[in-house]
UniProtKB/TrEMBL annotation:
Pfam families in UniProt: FAM195 (PF14799)
Protein's cellular compartments: Cytoplasm, Stress granule; Nucleus
Family (UniProt): Belongs to the MCRIP family.
Keywords, sorted A to Z: Cytoplasm, Nucleus
InterPro entries for the chain: MCRIP
Lineage: Eukaryota, Metazoa, Ecdysozoa, Arthropoda, Hexapoda
Annotated protein name in UniProt: Uncharacterized protein
Superkingdom of origin: Eukaryota
């Protein structure tokens, strides 16, 4: 029970399902990336590439103002903001 007398229900099943979905997604990405790496290494040893990727020969004018999203900076700012909010 909480301090106001109401019973608190923990959404454990939902959290477990979400965690399981996240683990499945991470495993899929991990396995896929490892497969690409293995194919790339196999192509390097055999002399003919099995993995191909696209390289722009000329910059795309539509992307001249493109700024990549800095996920690491975002999470850092969010962490500092959460710490500041909880300590205030």
């Amino acid at each position: 029970m909480s301090s106001n007398g109401k019973r608190m229900s923990a959404p454990r099943n939902r959290d477990h399902g979400l965690q399981q979905n996240q683990e499945e997604l991470i495993k899929f990405i991990w396995d896929s990336w490892n497969k690409v790496c293995q194919e790339y290494q196999k192509g390097n040893t055999q002399g003919s590439p099995t993995v191909a990727y696209h390289i722009e020969s000329e910059p795309n004018p539509m992307l001249k103002d493109f700024v990549p999203f800095d996920l690491e900076a975002y999470w850092g700012k969010r962490l500092v903001q959460n710490i500041s909010t909880h300590n205030a």
